[in-house]
Specification:
The protein has 338 residues and is α+β, with helices and mostly antiparallel strands. It contains 10 helices and 19 strands.
């Protein structure tokens, strides 16, 4: 049905709705993430990573579910920031035990390394190239078991939480006996993909009566269809189908270096003001004082400091303006119908 609709639109010379990705400046991400965490500058490399406000011992890629999509395995996370932090760039565990997100310009459905045993499946957030290749050697990727998350095979494909996963010393034992996981799937051609074979995980696929292939073909893998929202504010259409996943996954004007420059300007009032003044000067515009004196809400921290939210409390620490909201963030950051 979806292919028929797409073909009809193409024949009419139009672009099918929710198939084109939007293009935006990384400042849009900075605005959205601002209430939920802080940017931390590495004192050696001067690169920035994002530290969300969270409970002590928080780990990425734990609160959510792995589902199978037309792009392969897709992390459907529950955190307010996961729409961008789980698909652009990667998470790095620092020596303090706190996790920081290092942003990148390319979107990936599952920016992780996959390993498994006969009884467990595991993943590790890993940096990828533009085309999805690992930028670290396999030896480096398995060096630290604290960076790995494992779950029993019977639990994979189900909604996950901290109680179901194994990390630290538990992960170390499993990691020593693990091997790389990959599979092949036949769509319009046979394709090799990373991760476990989805045929074994019904819970990660749409219900059989909902989408292709036909219910009579029990050997074929079913998958969710990824639809692109044109903006962060765009609502899911009322006629969205249960096998469709609507997500905001824009392209950015900046490359990786440009993203770091935008973060630096965002977090340093002086640099931010100077940048605004240069743009206004180039455009011949005389801005109002309030426009040039605007400062970012979030203060910058050095990487040697552990965020107070992680040191002092086992309960989430959120800004005062968020505490006042009775129902949490005003709009969900991951939009799907399942």
């Amino acid at each position: 049905m979806v292919s028929i609709i797409l073909s009809a639109w193409l024949m009419l010379g139009a672009i099918a709705p929710f198939t084109e990705r939007g293009v935006t400046d990384f400042d849009a991400v900075l605005n959205i993430l601002n209430p939920y965490g802080v940017w931390v500058e590495n004192s050696v490399t001067h690169a920035y990573s994002y530290h969300p406000f969270c409970t002590e011992g928080w780990i990425p890629f734990v609160d959510g579910q792995w589902v199978y999509s037309d792009y392969g395995w897709f992390w459907k996370g529950n955190e307010s920031h996961q729409w961008v932090t789980s698909h652009y760039g990667y998470w790095k565990r620092e020596s303090s035990g706190v996790w920081g997100w290092i942003p990148r310009s390319e979107w990936h459905p599952n920016p992780v390394d996959w390993r498994g045993t006969k009884t467990h499946i595991g993943w590790r957030s890993s940096p990828l190239s533009k085309i999805g290749d690992f930028t670290e050697s396999e030896e480096k990727r398995v060096l630290d078991p604290n960076e790995w998350i494992f779950v029993k095979r019977e639990d994979f494909g189900k909604p996950l939480n901290r109680a179901l996963v194994m990390t630290g010393e538990e992960a170390k034992t499993i990691l020593m006996d693990s091997y790389l996981l990959s599979h092949e799937i036949e769509l319009y051609r046979v394709m090799a993909r990373a991760g476990p074979d989805p045929k074994s995980y019904e819970g990660a696929q749409p219900r059989r009566e909902l989408n292709q292939p036909p219910a009579t073909d029990l050997e074929k893998v079913r998958y969710y269809i990824t639809m692109s929202l044109p903006s962060y504010e765009t609502a899911i259409p009322i006629d969205a189908r249960p096998e469709q996943i609507y997500i905001y996954r824009p392209k950015f004007f900046q490359d990786n270096d440009g993203i770091q420059r935008r973060i630096k300007i965002w977090n340093n009032p002086k640099d931010r003001i100077e940048a605004v003044e240069k743009v206004n000067q180039a455009l011949g515009v005389t801005p109002e004082l309030s426009e040039t004196k605007a400062e970012p809400v979030v203060p910058i921290q050095k990487a040697t400091e552990v965020p107070e939210a992680s040191k002092k409390s086992s309960t989430p620490t959120v800004p005062q303006e968020i505490k006042k909201e009775e129902n949490g963030p005003k709009k969900p950051t991951f939009r799907s119908r399942s």
